[in-house]
Inverse folding.
């Protein structure tokens, strides 16, 4: 029998092999990421594994896919449910990007600490929003919805196996193999000719809309390795002649603890695609929709930490607006250094980041009776704090990656009222709760504190 985490690990590995065959530059990205990680490990030793073992970091991937309808998103949820992956977080990219990115998203991932340690594969999944009048008028919406209703992304056999794997939390070897074959095939780039006129109609609105609604299939848009030094990765990829986007999205590179998520990518490549012209003939063409993203993950922040991050983004934007010639990265570093605590201890003390805690067995303690606050327990050596890895995404960063890989900004009517979508709507559409990432981190932190309190014989909970 093959367990869910084994299915998840096998699916991630096979998807990576498939995507490497389709996009050779991705293989280069994985190779350079591995080289950088090995160099960081040699230079930093155990400190390099502060946010995950090198085994986990090397195996880690996050994929990105795009679907067109709530029904398709519901089917995707069933497939990822088979892999022990749950929808976490709601991301509205429609307003996060300067250009036209008419999608809302969630991320499917494991949520249990042990499951994450086994394999932390996650898939950022976006859904097109045809009902949004800012992007689609009534006529185009009708055509688009009719087109999407007429396609089948996932075969019934795959969905049946997925439901069985989710219900039983495992599959027999033969069924597991069949599930993996069908699941990987569902995300391969199709060779079916694309209706050139229809694709171009959508592309005038948004390249993302065309990639989702202009074809009869879906595919992996990027598969992201994790790297321990993203700035060095960016430099080495450029040295190899691979064109990277201009900026690294997310927090700046600075001297304090790594927080949240930093992302960059190589630019979308022109891939050969068969195009069907209005006269019915098929001609060769090329589309730029897939790119090679890479990420560096930091510490998960609390709601207060996230509010601070969003505030600092606004401060940097304001400073750049006042001084357009300034180096944005340098401005961000300065702002960050002025407002963000420079140590993990201060982050914890100010309630800005999440940690798990455990009894310290190898450090001297002061006195025979443990104190009753987390801060004193840490200061006196009774317990140690381990930072929780940020497992999720940042809307502005995701939109920035999308936008930097598009050939044009598309069109958006900002005078129209956008259609309403939120986490509750998404939960109903996929018939499973979209989980709050902050609540998940807080639960992990509190479980560890409750365990410490029990082991130390404290009568009151630690918070």
């Amino acid at each position: 029998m093959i367990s869910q985490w084994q299915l998840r690990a096998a699916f991630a590995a096979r998807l990576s092999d498939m995507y490497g065959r389709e996009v050779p530059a991705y293989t280069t990205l994985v190779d350079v990421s591995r080289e950088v990680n090995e160099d960081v490990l040699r230079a930093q030793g155990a400190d390099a594994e502060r946010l995950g073992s090198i085994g986990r970091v090397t195996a880690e991937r996050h994929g990105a896919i795009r679907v067109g309808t709530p029904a398709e998103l519901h089917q995707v949820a069933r497939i990822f449910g088979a892999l022990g992956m749950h929808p976490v977080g709601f991301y509205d990219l429609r307003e996060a990007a300067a250009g036209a990115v008419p999608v809302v998203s969630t991320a499917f991932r494991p949520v249990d600490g042990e499951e994450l340690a086994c394999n932390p594969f996650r898939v950022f999944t976006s859904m097109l929003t045809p009902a949004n009048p800012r992007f689609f008028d009534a006529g185009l919406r009708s055509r688009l919805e009719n087109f999407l209703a007429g396609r089948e992304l996932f075969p019934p056999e795959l969905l049946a196996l997925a439901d069985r794997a989710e219900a039983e939390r495992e599959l027999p070897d033969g069924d597991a193999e069949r599930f993996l074959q069908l699941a990987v095939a569902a995300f391969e780039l199709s060779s079916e000719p694309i209706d050139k006129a229809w694709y171009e109609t959508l592309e005038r609105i948004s390249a993302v809309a065309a990639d989702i609604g202009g074809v009869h299939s879906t595919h992996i848009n990027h598969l992201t390795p994790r790297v321990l030094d993203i700035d060095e990765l960016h430099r080495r990829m450029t040295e190899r002649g691979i064109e990277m986007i201009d900026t690294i999205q997310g927090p700046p590179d600075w001297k304090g603890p790594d927080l949240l998520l930093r992302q960059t990518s190589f630019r979308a490549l022109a891939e050969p695609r068969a195009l069907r012209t209005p006269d019915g003939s098929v001609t060769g063409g090329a589309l730029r929709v897939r790119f090679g993203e890479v990420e560096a993950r930091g510490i998960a922040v609390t709601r207060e930490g996230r509010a601070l991050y969003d505030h600092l983004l606004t401060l940097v934007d304001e400073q750049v607006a006042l001084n357009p010639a300034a180096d944005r990265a340098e401005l961000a570093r300065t702002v960050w250094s002025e407002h963000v605590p420079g140590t993990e201890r201060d982050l914890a003390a100010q309630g800005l980041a999440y940690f798990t805690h455990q009894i310290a067995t190898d450090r001297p303690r002061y006195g025979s009776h443990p104190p009753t606050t987390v801060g004193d327990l840490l200061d006196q050596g009774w317990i140690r704090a381990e930072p929780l890895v940020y497992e999720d995404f940042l809307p502005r960063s995701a939109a920035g990656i999308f936008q930097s890989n598009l050939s044009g900004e598309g069109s958006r009517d900002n005078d129209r009222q956008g259609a309403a979508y939120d986490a509750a709507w998404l939960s109903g559409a996929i018939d499973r709760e979209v989980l709050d990432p902050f609540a998940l981190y807080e639960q992990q932190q509190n479980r560890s504190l409750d365990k410490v309190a029990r082991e130390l014989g404290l009568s009151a909970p630690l918070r």
In short: The mean pLDDT is 92. Residues 301-350 form one domain. The longest helix spans residues 24-44.
